[in-house]
Amino acid sequence: MKFKALVIDIDGTITHMDRKLSLEAAAKLRSLDIPVVIATGNVLCYAKAAAKLVGVCCNIIAENGGVIVDGFDKEPIISDVIHECEEAYEFLSGTFDLEKLDSVHRMTEIVLRNNFDVEEARQLLGSRFPGVEIIDTHFAIHIKSRKINKGTGLLKMAELMGLKTSDFVAIGDSVNDLEMLEEAGFAIAVGNADDFLKDIADYVSTETYGDGTAEAIDFLLSKGLI
């Protein structure tokens, strides 16, 4: 089976450990004959810039599925979920000294610096905010709606592109990539990925970070999967 598109995370997947772009991974992504979708927990403007720099512009899933756009100049589809995240943030602010990141650009979730007890925060939210979850992507802490994730984002993006999610190869490294890898037709975890992501992956690269993505693309091409 040949897959018709690829969806890929940015940080930790096409970057090195220090978040510098892997030029090898970027070159391999740019050379593919199939569409490449960027899927990130980061904000839309960052994702657009990264997609342009990599050379795969511009089908983007941003803010962990909360913001979706299928063209650089198109209006994004924005999920209406920020209010419950703001309420959860205000509640937690009564206990923790929280520091927002990228708050000017965030449209569907709240992102915080990792300088507080995340597990205690999860317990405090408990049943009070059942529609909200806290995830740690290793780069930041996200307060997000349970209704959306990169998997739901991929469902919408596939619809916009006239494809099925099973037509996609997905590559990721962290907890926020889980639903995306589960939804895709073929799942790849780079070598630095969380163990539970490796457990569900169809292929796990030996190399880590951007080098792992470069290896994974070579594997897909060698097997005739793309």
TrEMBL record:
Positions contributing to substrate binding: K150
EC code(s) of this entry: 3.1.3.18
Gene3D superfamilies: 3.90.1070.10, HAD superfamily/HAD-like (3.40.50.1000)
Highest taxon above the source species: Archaea
Reactions catalysed, as given in the entry: 2-phosphoglycolate + H2O = glycolate + phosphate
Keywords annotated in UniProt: Carbohydrate metabolism, Hydrolase, Magnesium, Metal-binding
Pfam families for this protein: Hydrolase_3
CDD domains reported in the protein's UniProt record: HAD_Pase
Residues involved in Mg(2+) binding: D9, D11, D173, D177
Cofactor(s) the protein requires to work: Mg(2+)
Entry's Gene Ontology molecular function annotations: magnesium ion binding; phosphoglycolate phosphatase activity
Family annotation (InterPro entries): HAD-like_sf (IPR036412), HAD_sf (IPR023214), PGPase (IPR006382)
Residues annotated as the enzyme's active site: D9
One term under GO cellular component: cytosol
EC top class, as a word: hydrolase
General function of this protein: Catalyzes the dephosphorylation of 2-phosphoglycolate.
Family according to the record: Belongs to the archaeal SPP-like hydrolase family.
NCBIfam families given in the database record: Pglycolate_arch, PRK01158.1, SPP-subfamily
HAMAP family associated with the record: GPH_hydrolase_arch
Protein name: Phosphoglycolate phosphatase
Taxon lineage: Archaea, Methanobacteriati, Methanobacteriota, Stenosarchaea group, Methanomicrobia
